[in-house]
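Attaching the record inline, Q. Sequence:
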Amino acid sequence: MIKFKARRSIAAKKVPFAKAAPLVKELPEVMMIRGQQAGSKEEYFVAQGLNKLGMKYSYQVPVMGGRNVRGGQVLDFLVYTPGKYTIVDVRGTYWHTGAREDSLDILRVTRRYGWLLLVAWDTDVPDEATALSFLRTHLGGT
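Structure, as predicted:
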């Protein structure tokens, strides 16, 4: 018969709260857009730019069934521009290759609803100031 010697539990060690508290402060701040966690820092920068321009928009908008239906999409931003809605699609070079297939699904949505499309690559919006400039150039605003 084999006997195992029980180890002392890690939880049994008493760690004073004062020593454990700084670990919580080192966690990064969560970037929020309209009550949702931002999908990327570039999306957060675009949201900050839209806020500074005073533009009305919705974030993570499901269309054509969203993620639940084949062919459905979730739009990064649907901006309420004068005359027509504009989709602002934020793309990163890590996930998007720039291949034709990347654009086909989103183009299907623009044709169906008659909306405009603005693609913002991560190299176009690397920080808040550049994102604001990019949006001001392509969407207008003050």
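DSSP finds four helices and six strands in the chain. Strands lie at 32-33, 36-37, 57-63, 73-80, 85-91, 116-121.

More tomorrow.
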